[in-house]
Amino acid sequence: MYNIIADEKDKGGMRVITLDKKDLIEAMTEFKSQGYYLSSITGVDMKDHLEVIYHLHNFDKNEYLGVKVLTYDSKVPSLVGLWKAADWDEREQYDLMGIIFEGHENLRRILLPDEWVGHPLRKDYDLKKVQYVSMDSEGNEHVSFDEREGW
Amino acid sequence: MKTGDLGVKTTTLEKALEWGRSNSLWPLTMGLACCAIEMMATQAADLDISRFGSEIFRNSPRQSDLMIVAGTTTKRMAPRVRRIYEEMPYPKYVIAMGVCVIQGGPYVDGYSVVLGVDKVIPVDVYVPGCPPSPQALTYGIITLQKKIRGETDR
After folding, report:
1. Which of A37, A78, B32, B73 has minimal CB crowding within 10 Å?
2. Do A33 and A57 belong to one domain?
3. In angstroms, rounded to a whole number, what is the distance separating the alpha carbons of residues A102 and A76?
4. Cβ-based interface (< 8 Å): residues of B facing A
5. Which residue in B110, B111, B120 is closest to A151 by CB distance?
């Protein structure tokens, strides 16, 4: 049995529950059996910890449900085993927020080139260190801090 | 261009070529973001740029001679824009449409946007706006036609 830490309603009337991350898979399995589908995965950087917010949608009841998970070591269990839709959403969160989804088999960058340094939506990402992307004739992308080696 | 008494017009070959090129600009569909919607409106029936010889948007760079870069050019897209530009046959022209393409626009402090597509490819005409209205783009095309015919200083 999973333990709900907080249960609240947001401004739009959507129910948002907060879970411990070890209960996540168990709770999500139950929500899936109730007819919820994964709509989106969002990440928030709260400086001392990261939050991962899952939006679930029930087509039968036309009801949304938000599930919030806090993580202090930027690791969260992956939901690819439950919903295939979680695959690219989790890759996006890994790419931009640096959240590591444990159990994801193909956790690569999805939007930025593979060689990119850092995760740009983190609060501690340094925007002054500009990175430049170039492409060789084979189609492989290279990232450099040197302005002359890319755009 | 001179008009003689015999009803014969004489001109130089360059003038004739420039006249022909400027009135048959075939644009390439280089819609990268939201400006592409305005570019489509420019091409569609209401503000038809076929009136100025830009017949129809080509999907192949080999069939076109005008690249309208419409929309935010990200760092990852820039090498692709460069490659497509190199695939176009000479003579080729570029219109930079929208502030994102001109200098970064609202993404000027971002991490992923090229601050000006003129760092990647040479640009002939800049059309500012966010997005520019179809009338502004039509004006940009007319300005480019004047530039090809040598009627402007720049």
Report:
1. A37
2. yes
3. 6
4. 75-76, 78-80, 82-83, 109-112, 114, 119-120
5. B120
